[in-house]
Amino acid sequence: MLLLWCITTLLGVAEEERPVVFTPTEQRRILQHSPVPEPPDDPTNAWDLDPDAANLGQALFYDAGFSRNGQISCASCHGPMIAWTDGIPISTGMGPGKRHSQSLLNVAHNRWFFWDGRADTLWSQAMHPVEDPAEFDGSRVDYVRRIHEDPAYREAYESVFGDLPSMADTERFPPGTRSGTPEWTAMTEADRDHVDRVFVNCSKAIAAFERELRSVDSPFDRFVEGLREGDREKMTALNSSEQRGLQLFIGDAGCRQCHSGPLFTDFEFHNIGIPTGHGGPPRDPGRFGGIEFVQSSSFSSHGEHSDEPNGRKARRTGSIVQGQEHWGSFKTPSLRNVARTAPYMHQGQFEDLGTVLRFYNTLEDMQVQDHHQESVLQPLDLTEQQLADLEAFLRSLDSPLPPRSLMGPVDPRTGLPPPRPETGPPTPSESENQP
Amino acid sequence: MITKSAAILAAAMLLGGCSTSLDHQLQTNDRNYEVSWSSDPSPIPVNDFFTLEVEVRRDGELLTDGELSVDAAMPHHNHGMNHVPLIERTGPGRWHVEDMLFHMPGYWELYFDVRDRGVTHRAQEPLEVD
Ligand SMILES: [Cu+2]
User: Fold this and answer.
1) Closest-CA residue of chain A to B80
2) Above 70 in pLDDT, residue A271?
């Protein structure tokens, strides 16, 4: 080591410039992280790949009209300009939330949705915000009524999903009715079923839109292409510091144990003992609660609203066994575009990547739970230079955002931007600067 | 290729005194049963679902009755698999296993528990998944 240092110093080659040599094992591991394949189809959503459904879904996604005060849309917490997140530790909609917003880039690759995986399909996830007091604080009856009353939504809905019966009778469909309330239970089963059906269909349309939110072409991917083809020119897409960071990531730092595959996530759940945002021991059951919910919800992949209730997905949701070890574990986030998604972790505990890496390096203040917890992390004891390399590598996982056309509201019938309002700020799709 | 499969076959004959097309052979820890298995895809991938074909023999003969359960764990990490695999008996001494998932790279142990005549016998295979 010392000898090498002497030689490079004598030759005037700074540490910075020295080329990184990857062993065959390292090369094999690196190739596992790129390219990103197409997201898998979702057989539980028959409209998953339907472009008209996606147009309707995009209109719904950017529409604040479903929230109680008419000001909160999905995009309020999943803003297109910041990688479909909200940039704050704990999201707030109509009320204070409990967790940090998740980026929706490449979201259709997931096996489970939310930090605790309490939804097993993208469409069933999209139903949650509507009645959540912390998000839209709205109701499914009002939601469906609006689809029916708004001519553009109604036309778009009917052209994708078929007839939309009238919701005009407010005795049968009392305004403001949420599922689970006495008013809801008092409705006839057929009426409840009608509301649920339309609500689910709209959520399936949102999922079809979200499937298009992809961002997969980063300097790292060009580097891997070069490695695969033996093209040194392409490999310069990563500088030496980024390459050393990559070497740590797939090697000594052990990151690939959980941040594996092309999305840099195993799509599963771990308790890595991040100190809580509120101080003291964790209160959030994480995956422990998520398993309970997803297995019992009638809107999961095994339920009557699924388009494949007896498929693999449903079987796999049923075959998880909840155990103590799930308590306080959370979904491993994808690290693609991670430089854009600060703050980090399920409560936004860490404000920047440097803080994240210092945690992994020292495990200072780690919240260790009972003996059932998995034990993977060890303090890394990396040098400042190594931490900088690792961070540089993470920053190289940055890709261009999806096309502008996906970044703002559209007419649900055409997918084209709505006519420009007389006054008011331009929509993100019209603004000229991208971050 | 020919030599490799020949070697496997020879090993199988030595071990079990019988032939199997499955590419891994082991014995239960008490040496009473021979367990053969292969995975699809092979080798076992990191964090991708795979299936197993399993055969169990006693004294070289496929087990006529008896039950099999399959499990796996990362003993150094203190955890197992996230799903309970689906096991289907496809004939005497033969099983097909679905929904196997090794969600992390590293050292795994694959467990075959053969329940026969009221006693459970374990065969275990150490595996490096990378
Ligand atoms: Cu593990």
Assistant:
1) A374
2) yes
Position A14 pLDDT exceeds 90: no
Angle at A111 between CA B99 and CA A370, to 5 degrees: 80
Closest chain B residue to A378, measured at CA: B77
What mean pLDDT is reported for chain A? 92
Which residues in B lie closer than 8 A to residue A374 (C-beta atoms)?
Answer: 77-79
Strand partners of residue B86: B98
Q: What pLDDT digit, counting tens, does each position of B36-50 carry?
A: 999 999 999 999 999
Instruction: List B88's β-bridge partners, or say none.
Output: B96
d(CA A403, CA A415): 13
Among residues A83, A111, A118, the alpha carbon closest in space to that of A335 is found at: A83
Tell me which chain A residue has its CA closest to the CA of residue B104: A257
DSSP-assigned letters across all residues of B45-113: PTTS-EEEEEEEEETTEE-SS-EEEEEEEETTTTEE-SBPPEEEEEETTEEEEEEE---SSEEEEEEEE
Name the strand (E) or helix (H) holding B123.
strand B119-129
- Residues around the ion ligand 1 (C-beta < 5 A): B 74, 77, 104
Task: Name chain A contacts of B70, Cβ cutoff 8 Å.
Answer: none
3-state secondary structure of A286: strand
The string of pLDDT tens digits covering residues A92-149 is 999 999 999 999 999 999 999 999 999 999 999 999 999 999 999 999 999 999 999 9
Residues contacting residue A288 through CB under 8 Å, at least 6 positions apart: A116, A322, A324, A326, A327, A328, A329
Asked if A36 and A107 touch (Cβ cutoff 8 Å), the reply is: no
Tell me the pTM. Answer: 0.92
Domain with CATH 1.10.760.10 in chain A: 25-40+217-395, 51-214
CATH 2.40.10.340 fits A25-40+217-395, yes or no: no
**What's A51-214's CATH class?**
mainly alpha
* ipTM of the complex, rounded to two decimals: 0.88
Compute the Cα dihedral for A39, A43, A45, A48 and give only its sign: positive
Element (H, E) at A54: helix A51-61
Domains of chain B by residue range: 21-129
B18 pLDDT exceeds 70?
Answer: no
Q: How far is CA A78 from CA A25, A98, A202, A403, B60, in A?
A: 38, 16, 18, 16, 61
Predicted confidence (pLDDT) per residue in B72-113, tens digit: 999 999 899 999 999 999 999 999 999 999 999 999 999 999
CB atoms within 10 A of CB B102: 22
Q: What is the pLDDT of residues A163-197, one digit of tens each?
A: 998 999 999 999 999 999 999 999 999 999 999 99
The CATH number given to B21-129 is 2.60.40.1930
What is the distance between the alpha carbons of residues A91 and A114, in angstroms, rounded to a whole number? 13
Which pLDDT score, from 0 to 100, does residue B7 have?
47
Note whether A268 contacts B46, CB cutoff 8 Å.
Answer: no
Is B79 in contact with A29 (Cβ distance < 8 A)?
Answer: no
